[in-house]
Design brief:
Elements lengths: L8 H25 L1 H23 L4 H4 L7 H29 L16 H30 L5 H15 L7 H17 L2 H28 L10 H29 L22 H13 L7
Length: 302
């Protein structure tokens, strides 16, 4: 069996910091010019390419680091169901955060436009679902989660998920992605394949885009219908109450699905041996935390 080289937490954190800065500076620039082409540049050039270059320069096995292993048809169906029942929980968590933040400052809607016709809908699925599902999973459930495997499997899942949430640089959209990152990490470890999280990520974004698309069309159709006006915060509270019931039901089903998800080939033992990691290895993460706080300072003042 080929000896598996380990990636460094410190180096991976530096890579994460550099890509995060590039996302904030260059990603914002290209997306401000044209959102869809900007998103493609962000995903493939700013996120995916540096990860592949890093792994190649370090002489690491891309197949092993990224767990490019086959998954069965049965596993795919479980991943689909796990993602479907994870979605209401993620929406509840984001709505909860949005409700809290609405009392501290003005919330900002997503900058990603919702398509208003079928042609743009399918193109948006390619840009907003498929591209992130590939590129971001290579980074977080591939490069980062493998590096953090040296501190233990559970910590690797949680740390990579938190970094995934921070990477969105938006407090409104932090807790939901962090939760999903944990779910994606669990599925990757159980199946020993990154294709599990890629499928989940693509499906999750696709569900969000589809709901947004049909909701926009329904809203356009109802624009001329008289309606009672209620405050934005009251709307959030009503939505939160509804999502809480759905989230609890989904959580009960989700736990069972994860337990029954068929396992893949055993993870190479060397990957999950815990090692001592110095506190200085985490210093690069301070930069992203500072950037995250600065961007979201509007919520610190009433």
């Amino acid at each position: 069996m080929e000896e598996l080289k380990k990636s460094s937490i410190f180096e991976t954190n530096i890579l994460y910091l550099l890509i995060g800065i590039a996302l904030f500076v260059l990603g914002s620039l290209v997306q401000s010019r044209e959102i869809y082409s900007g998103l493609l540049i962000t995903e493939y050039i700013i996120i995916l390419l540096p990860n592949l270059i890093y792994l190649k320069l370090r002489g690491l096995s891309i197949k092993n680091i990224l767990r490019l292993n086959k998954i069965s048809f049965k596993q795919v169906w479980y991943i689909i169901l796990i993602t479907i029942f994870s979605y209401p929980i993620a929406i509840f968590l984001n709505t909860l955060m949005l409700t809290i933040l609405s009392f501290f400052g003005e919330t900002v809607p997503s900058a990603v436009p919702i398509p208003d016709n079928p042609a743009m809908y399918f193109f948006a699925l390619f840009v907003i679902a498929l591209a992130p599902g590939i590129c971001e999973e290579v980074m977080f459930r591939g490069t980062i989660m493998h590096a953090y495997g040296s501190v233990g499997k559970k910590k690797a899942i949680i740390y990579s998920a938190v970094l995934f949430g921070l990477f969105h640089l938006n407090l409104q959209n932090f807790i939901g992605p962090t939760f999903l990152g944990i779910i994606f990490g669990i599925t990757v470890y159980k199946t020993n394949s990154i294709f599990a999280s890629m499928i989940g990520h693509v499906l999750n974004n696709g569900i969000a885009m589809t709901i947004g698309y049909f909701a926009l069309n329904a809203q356009n159709a109802m624009d001329e219908v008289p309606a009672y006006e209620i405050s934005y915060q009251l709307q959030l509270l009503i939505a939160l109450a509804g999502f809480s019931v759905l989230a609890l039901l989904s959580l009960a089903i989700l736990v069972r699905l994860i337990k029954r998800l068929p396992k893949g080939n055993e993870v190479v033992e060397q990957e999950i041996i815990e090692e001592d990691v110095k506190l200085t290895h985490y210093i690069p993460l301070i930069g992203i935390v500072i950037l995250f706080v600065v961007i979201n300072t509007k919520y610190l003042f009433i």
